[in-house]
Structures are given as C-alpha cells and as structure tokens.
Amino acid sequence: MLGRDHEPSDIERRRTMEQSRALPTEVDLSRPSAARVYDYFLGGAHNFEIDRQLAQQIAAMTPNLADTMRAGRAFLRRAVAELTRLGVDQYLDIGSGIPTVGNVHEVAQGINPKARIVYVDIDPVAVAHSRSILEDNPLTAVIQADVRDPAHILSEARETGLLDFTKPIGVLLAGIVHFVPDSDDPDRLMAALRDAVPPGSYLVISHSTYEDQPQEMLDAQKLSARTATEITLRSKAQVSAYFGDWELLEPGVVHMPLWRPDSPDDVDDQPERFGAFGGVARKPAAG
Amino acid sequence: MALSAPEISTSGAQRYAGRWTHAIARRAFVPMTSEQVQELLTGHAVRLAQALAAEEFSAEPAREVGRALVEANLTEPDTLGWSLRALTEHLVDDVVPGLALPDQAARLTRLQAALAEGFAWALRDRTFAQQERISRSAWEARNEAEQALRDSEARFRAVFSGAAIGIGIGDLTGQIVDVNQSFADMLGYSRDELRELNVSTLFHDGDAPGIWELYEDLIEGKRDRVRIEKRYFRKDGSELWTDLAVTLIRHDDGRPRFTVAMVQDITERYALQQRLRFQALHDPLTGLPNRTLFFERLEAVLQDREHDRRVGVCFLDLDGFKAINDALGHDVGDQLLIVVARRLAEAGAGAGHLVARMGGDEFVILVEDVDEEGTAIEVAESALRAVADPVYIGANQLAVSASVGVVDRFVTEGTAADLMKAADTTLYWAKAEGGRGRWARYDPERAAREATSTALAAALPAALARDEFVVEYQPIVSLGNGGMRAVEALIRWQHPTLGLLSPDQFIGLAEETGLIIRLGQWVLERSCAEAGRWHKEFPRARLMVSVNLSARQVSDPEIVDQVAGALRHSGLPPDLLQLELTESALMAPGGEPVRALRRLASTGVRLAIDDFGTGYSNLAYLRQLPIHTLKLAGPFVDGMRAQDPASVVAERIVDALVRLAHALGLSVTAESVETLEQVERLTALGCDSGQGRHFGTPAAPATIAELLRSAEMPGG
C-alpha cells in the first residue's frame, strides 16, 4: 500500500499560510525595510544604518524622492482630514509603516477625537513600533498582515472590535499597492477590499507611476528591489481601475499635490515630478 | 524701563514668518497646512523679537524656539541655518524696526547660540528617543517571533513526546536523529539505543520489494512522501507490523533536509488480515488451499505467456465416496478427506505442486511446469498411489481409490475456465472407463466429438418440434418374383446447418436422452400414415412398411397403444406393418419385452429381428417369440463375394441361418444386397427377400408411389 506522490493540496497551502500568520515573519535586521527607509525620508530617526544607506543611494539617484514621500504623506493627511470632515470616523490604514508624526489617528482624532483607526503592516518591526506608540490610545489597533491577503486583514480587523463594518469605513492604501506585483493580482485584492465595506465607505489610494517620469525615477525602482519588496509602477488608468465603480471625488486621480491642496501656493510648478497618483472614491449605494 | 520701547510689528512678524515658512516648510514633512506652519512661525518670530528687545535680556526663548522647531518636525539642518541667518538679517527690520540697543549685536549672537543649542538638544533627544524606540521595537518584534517559535517548538515537543503513534526523525544519511517514546516502545529499544541506529538497519530481506528504492527516492528528493506497510523486528526479535508514512522535509530552497517517519503499530490488524486472508483462501476442513487460491495461482501461471510454458492440472475425485459417507457417516467421511488431503499434499509438496480442495471429495493438483511427455501423468499416478494405501479411521479400514482427469497444455491455449472444464470432462472419462484408480488424459479430438454430439443431442427436441425430420423408404424385394413387398422406414434429420444426417449420427443420442420414445412414435405414425395412403391408392400391391423400434420403445408400456393408434389413424391393415427389433431389445431381462411382443403380435402386426446374427441370440428362446421374420445382418451378405475363399464360409452360415429360420417358420430378409451375384446366391439358398443398394436406396415417399404406380401398369 503506497501513498500517492505528494502534491501539496490547496488545503496544505492554506495551512502553510496560516502557519506563517501564526508565526510573525522572520525579523531580519540585516536587510533594509521599506517602512524604515520611508521614515528616514520623512526626517525620522526610526531607522538603522542599513536603511539609511539604501535611502541615501536612492536619494542620490532621485533627489525628488524625499519630496515624493513627503508629498504622499501630505496627500494622505489632506485626504483623511477631508474624509473626517465628511463624517468618516473609522479607518483601515493598510501599509501604515512606521508612524512618525502626522499619522492618520493624529489627523483624524485632531478633528474627531472619537475616530478609530486600525493600522496594518507586514513589517514586524513597524508593527511593534506602532504598538509601542499607540499603547495609550484605546481607539487604535495594529495588526500584522500582508496586503496580498485581504481575507486575513479583514478578519483580523474585525477581531479588534474597533471597526463597525455596517458603517462607512475609510480604507487607506497610501503608497502600498505599488508593492504588489501583477502576479499577485492587485485588481482582485482591491475588489476584495471594496466588497468588504458598506456603501458610503471611501477608498484612498496613492500609487507610484512611470507616466511623465524621468529615467532616474525608473532606475530607482530597481533599487527598491533591495528592500523586502519591489515597486511596480503603474499607469493612471490602472490606478483608476482600483477604484472599481466607486465615485471618484474631485479632482479624480491626479498627481498627488493636485489633490485638493491646502492653498494654491502649495502646488509645485511641476506636480508630476512627485511621480505618483492619488485619488479618493466613495462607494455608491447598493444597486 | 527702556528708553524707548519699540513696537512689535504683527504684520512684520507675519512677513518674517512668511519668509521662514517659504524657506523651510518644503524641506521637511510637516503634518500641517502651510497656514498652520506660518502661524506657528509667526509666534516664534514674536517671541524671538520680544526676547531681543526685552529690558532684561534672556536667551531662553530662543532656546525654546529651537526646541519647538524640532518638535514640529522642522528638523532639516538647512532649517537651522536659515533660522540663524534670519535672526541677524531680518528679525529687527521685519519685526521690531528701529530697535537699536547698545548690546544688540551681542544679544542677537546669544539668541542665535541659544536657538542652535535648543535645536541641537531637542534633535539629539528626539534622535535618541526614536533610535531607542525603533531598536526596542526591533527587539520586541524579534522576541515575539522567537517566543512564537519557542511556543511552536513547545507545542511540537508536546505532540512529539505525547503522540500515540511513533515519530522518528532521520537525516539524509539515514542516521536516526530522534525518536519519541512511542516509537522506542514499539520497537522495544530505548530512545538512546535507537538514536545510535541507522535507518538501513531496520530494513530486511523480507521487506516488500521496492521499499528501499522508495526510501532512496525520498532522500534524493524525487518524492515527498511514502506510505507503506512495513514489518520491523523488535529488539527481542518479534515481529512488528506497521503502517509507516515517511515525509521528506526540505530546506527553503527545496534541497532535502531530513525525513520524518510516522509509525503506527498494526501488528494485530495485520495478523487478523493474514488470518482472514488465510481463511478466505483455505479449506477449513483439510487446511488445503481452496478453489479461490487455486484459481489465483492458475491465473498467475496462465499470465506468464512469455515462455513456451506448459501447465498441467490433475483433477482428482474419490471413487465411491458417497457410499462411504452414507454407510459410515459424515464424520468418517470428513476424517477420510483429511487423510487424503494430507497424503496428496505430502506427495505434491515435495515437487512443489499446489494441492487444493475444490469441494466435496474433489481435489486438484496444479503442476506449474510440465513437458509434453507426460510429467502430469506421473503426478497423477503418484497421487493415485498416495490415495491407494488403506486408511484407518477408528475401527474402520477403508480401501480408497480415486480417479484422475489429467490436462496439460501450453499456457496460451485457453483460459483457466477452459482448462478446468477440460479437467472435469477428463475426470468423467476416467470414471466412465469403469473400474477404480484410473487416470485419463485429455484428448482434444474426443472432446470435440463429444461436444458436437452434445450439441446435437441438445438440439434434438427442438428439431422434432420444428419438423426437421423426414422419413425415407428403402424397398424390400421378393427374391422369388422380384416384386417390391415392403419398404423400411428410415429416419433422416434435415439439419439446418449440417445438412441431411443419417440415423447413426443421432439415434444413439436420442436413446441416451430418452427422446427416442417420442422420435420413434413420430416415425411410426408418419410411416403408417404414408403406408396407409399407398394402401388406399394401390390396394393390390399390399406394400408393407417396416418400422424400427428401439429397445426403450419396446419396454415402454404405451407401445401397444401407440401402434394400435397409428394403425387406427392411418387405416393401414395391421398385417402391412412390420416392427423391426434388435436382438438386444428382445433379450432384455425381466420378460417385459416378451409380454409386449405377444400383445403386439396379437394386434396382427408382423415382427422382425433386425441385424440378426450380430448379437448373442438365444436360439432356443427364439422359438418362443412371436416373430415372423429374420433380417440377416449386412456382414453375412458382404462376405458372399466371388473369388473370395472366405465367401464359402459366409455362404454356409447364411445357408444355415436360412434353414434355421425356415425350420422355425420364419421368413428371411437379407440386408445390404449390392450385386446381382449376391441376389443369385441368396435366391439359390432359399432366402425370401432382399434389401440393399441393388434393389434401391432409401427414397422419398413420392418415389415409392411412383414405383407402385409403374408396377400396376400392364406389363410393368
């Protein structure tokens, strides 16, 4: 009686994934982390030598990159402030990184002190850090999960008890979807997230692009392969498709600084130099 | 109070802050709108201006401004540079225009120093704090991962040590790295002892073929999992049967790393399986293999078609076993079967033959390799010898014998079922040859003949129903005047595929199956009807019809009624019907035929003895029978040929028979008359009539009618 040749079944694959969830991702401090490189570009000191080396290499090739990251952070701040003023009081921030200053909860709770925020990141160090600064904030939670596994994100988010999935939720995907390669089917992941929240919810996305970009920006993409994840640049059309049939808020999917600037003075002469699109859309009523 | 107290210009402060914002806001990420930043910096500008213009100078506000810049995340080094430069270049002009203090330059310098100190201290504190925080987070994350790993290991350890199934881990050299207590207990070793062993020492020659190759495939990474039933030997040498699953664990890059074996003790289940299998394949009385096992082995042999291989089967059956069972009881019968089984097994086992009990008193010996010269017959003879010795059961001494059907053939010649059918047939032949202790060897030609006969016999009833039989009539002619006195009715079978069959091809079968009664009656009725029509049309011819009666018909109590019925229905006068009987039909013991003959004779029909001289006629007895005619058997007439010295003897015999018949008042008909010379001699000897090709072959009724018609014509 001989067993069949072993082919891992779907169940076994799933079990493997579950095991990897049960165990935090291996903590490898010898490799740079996207979250800490980001922090460096934002002026933080939550980073190590290895992160700074990479950041400086990227900066040397693309002097604009630090500006891009600041612009992305500013876009997120403006979007969250806008949504909070529109009445959204719960957020799911996927790919939150290392929360330095100006985080979602600071912005949202600055306007509505009862706003609840669930942060999601894959980097165990970022997660540990987030927990340490948020431990006194009962309206926030941090979960470790992979953007490529929306089902896991959603079930963990529900478990925090902070989010009410029958009420509008602001789903934030700032500078994260470009870390998902096409092979992981980002369209499917976005659809899963859109389907999980009720009408009236909002989706905020900022995403790097190759459109209108100089060569050095494209080269920098290759360097990003040295962090745990590689960046996939996408077109405006591709980014727009991530919103599905949701209603885009004015001015639509645009270069980030053009999205509802605080004042016209803030808009750069060349808004495309930041190399990323941003947009916000609202889920229409069912039917 | 100061000599003059210059006003702090609010709009100036805003202008100053505007320059400041413009210069630094884009340098750093500020979680505020530009307006908010400018508002913040306006406040700082005012504080700096107030500090500069204060009556009692203190640089402390500048220190706080430096710190506040850091706290607002305005930490870029350029920020500090611009802030310091602006103090000397723009602060007075923008915010407190006209201020002119004697120590103003010194104050500005001290403000610059304090702002720089505050900035540096705050930045240093913040950097330390953030570094500490990120390091602590890294360690926490790592601890958490390690804790999770430790928890996982602890869980694994608990499973490993507590599992009821045996678990063993081996490296790629086969060295056992670790086993759990269950594994050790199963094998009767201590864990330490097992950790000294190599997996290879647990394999044995008796393992199922291919097991070791499977294991090698596994450690070479060709497969990920193997599951087998495997036997181990415990330390004390006893057997352990296991359900063994071995899984290959790989490195992240796919290279084989080690193997994990999961072992379940299935010894009891295995033993039960074996017992069930044995029971399923053996006869409970004798312990011999049963027919299932026999057929399994036979099929296996027949599958081996690669070689020119012959297989033999001896099908053995005890002679008279039923009588022993009936006379001495089933217990004795069973004891006898056990003894016979043992003897057969002993005789067969030495030569490696499989001896099986097929059921009842039937045994079979499978001879897996035989030559054409009759190896199988030697086996049959040795089996007969083994059975022949007297058997003692209790007080009974039994003389036992058996019969054997032997079949040997190439494995390519037919299926197991064919082979066993042939063996069965051959055993029947051996029995039919009479006597005990015989063997017969299968003869394909005989079997084919028998098969044809069997098929014909089976087809007879339907043939009768479908009216496939016809009757032909052969003239019997008077040797005195050459006139046709009678015709013999001869049955033919118009077979749909085999054509016209003569009686000797099917009458014997009809007698065996008993159909002869119905067939004979049909011939009788048909012949009488035909003869009745002739008689109506040609009354003067007085043509007699002669019909054969078989022995079984003669002894049939209905025969007299049947004959009377046939006569009544046809209107044939009884003296125009002759019934031919063989000597053996007449001589049957018990006297019944004689009574039947007398009753037949009393109806007025004539009786003839057919083929006279071929049987063992009791001539004295002949006198008492109501017989009218003797038909001399063909061989006597055949013998009467010219130039043959033996013909003189034949002629004398015929002469004697004719005289004898005439002495008894019987007429004589010679059969098989073929030549004119024979006619002349028979006439000279006084023989009354003749029948044979010389006078005409059997013919259709229409032909007979034609002959009668031409005889009636004048001059015919």
Proportion of residues in extended strands of chain B: 15-25%
Largest interface: A-B, 45 and 40 residues
Portion of residues within helices of chain B:
40-55%
What is the CATH superfamily classification of chain A? Answer: Vaccinia Virus protein VP39
The chain-level mean pLDDT of chain A equals 83
What is the CATH first-level class name of the largest domain in chain B?
Alpha Beta
The total of beta strands of chain B comes to 21
| Gap between N and C termini of chain A | 57 Å
CATH level-four homologous superfamily name of the largest domain in chain B: EAL domain
Name the descriptors:
heterodimer, A: alpha/beta, Rossmann fold, 39% helix, B: 716 residues, alpha/beta, Beta-Lactamase, Alpha-Beta Plaits, 8-stranded mixed β-barrel, 5-stranded antiparallel beta sheet, 21 strands, elongated, PAS-assoc_C (chain B), PAS domain S-box-containing protein/diguanylate cyclase (GGDEF) domain-containing protein (chain B), PAS (chain B), GGDEF_dom (chain B)
